[in-house]
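Teaching assistant's notes for section 4

Start the section by putting this record on the projector. Ask students to predict, before seeing the second block, whether DNA replication complex GINS protein SLD5 will look compact or extended. Collect guesses on the board.
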Amino acid sequence: GPDSDGGSEELVLTPAQLIRSLEQAWLNEKFAPELLESKPEIIECVVEQLDHMEANLKRAKREDLKVSVHRMEIERIRYVLSSYLRCRLVKIEKFFPHVLEKEKSRTEGEPSILSPEEFAFAKEYMANTETYLKNVALKHMPPNLQKVSLLKSVPKPNLDSFVFLRVLERQENILVEPETDEQREYTIDLEEGSQHLIRYKTIAPLVASGAVQLI
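Reveal the predicted structure now:
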């Protein structure tokens, strides 16, 4: 209804727009050094769309050329979806303490970076890691070294790494930090359609807002 708060609005996308959003999320996830905001509503819609396409195929005539084209399209979407989810799991395994920390410290209205399933996975992964360290690695250490901080010992995502991007919506006055101490920081405009190689943390908010696409 009109009084429902932001989180619950339905995504109304055509199938083509839906698949495009999935592909954008997938490419961004693939090239961003950190775990990005989770997109449960896109995943849900894509899975529904796939079911719908499968059902349509069952009704179609076998020898129809369209059938094999649709079959290929379904396979491609399945590939992108599973690659996207796998890419996220790899990052969760790699950065689990930081990911959980970020999830714990986010404020009420902030979007989650983990789906409920990913959150459960990350917590279990953390618990297993801690158990493993206690039982295997740390048992043989002197007592003063038996406490280990996973936050300190697991590398953080490197937000200073460089990414390629394409600009989808023109941006003005993007602040670029200097490469070396001698340089001053400066601002640039990002023209729609232009491509850049730029430090990830400079444009992280633009990836999140959809203004740029990592490539």
